Amino acid sequence: MPKPGPATRNGIKALDLYCRKTNARNLKRLSLSIGAALGTNKSILRENILSQAAALEELRYRRQKNGTVSVLSIDAGISNFAFTRFSWPLNQELPSLIDWKKIQLRDKFMSPGRKEMSLHPEDTSQVIYELTEYLTTELPLPDVFTIERQRARSMSSRTILEPILKVNILEQVLFSNLRCKARLASGSEGNYLVASSDPQRMTSYWCSLTPIRKPLGQNFPKGSEEAQMKMSSNRLSKSIKINLVKRILEGALGYEPRKLISLTPSWEQRLRSFITGNHKFKLWDCAVLGPDAGVRKDDDLADSFLHGLAWMEWLRAYEEVFNIVMKEQGSYDQNVLADFNDYCKNKKLELEKFQKGTSDNLTDLELEEK
């Protein structure tokens, strides 16, 4: 990929300038809006914002240069490997849903008759090699692969359980394979990017501002486990994300007032077969998955969907703030600082308003996996 021009370099510098001039509260708001890691002080906040801005600048540059940008987001799992692809052309207001799948890696990539994928290097090498080839040769290459970072332990366990270890190996080796293949193909990482996507940042972006006390108190018995749940509950955040994806799909079909994605004709026809406006449908059915799709559950599909769309929304916010800080060719201006501060404040208010709409759907919660 050609080196980004002066506008790119000046944009990062200008963002740094206005981050230095604003306060920590606005930096936290901006961090949420572009998917940056938080920090304990203003200096760390600013460093994390600039780190995320550098990744988003790569995508902004590609979108400007090529007229479109695409992301393929992966929720890694041995039995429930899910991925979603979004594309966002310059001449289109919203990103489009292009692909949404879930596969059972053992059934798809291991020799017939094998009952499970072991921790033996022969198994992991074969499966992840075949998976890498599938993602890079059988599917159109995206501008960026995002792979959800996996937890190292299961809940409060002091040991690493074998299923968790397998998924960690899958994540690490797949990341390495994809990045190495890009390097070998072009002598650099220019063909596509590979990003490790933090699930906490994604969940924070989509869920952290969702009001939960009132709906849980109204929909579940007083004193029950559900009524007292906190946002840190895996069961609650899983339920919010599944309901949120349903809202986004309903919005794309006109059943919800806010529209975040557009649909290709084939996807619109497919979704209208299952979504009728009553919110009682399964994401599994919407994705129209085959026999090699693993366990029939929605959370993996929701995670890959929201990771991909989060990167599109973070890119949108970055482009918007980029245009603000470059109003005076990146030089400091009091009016630009006021616009920058207003943007940070209003973007968070916009997220609060959107997330509030998910609360009405928390009438039942996903069950914990056994």
UniProtKB/TrEMBL annotation:
A molecular function (GO) term: crossed form four-way junction DNA binding
Occurrences of domain Mitochondrial resolvase Ydc2 catalytic (ranges): 71-320
Entry superkingdom: Eukaryota
Transmembrane regions listed in the UniProt entry: none
GO cellular component: mitochondrion
Pfam annotation, one family: Ydc2-catalyt
Name the record gives this protein: Mitochondrial resolvase Ydc2 catalytic domain-containing protein
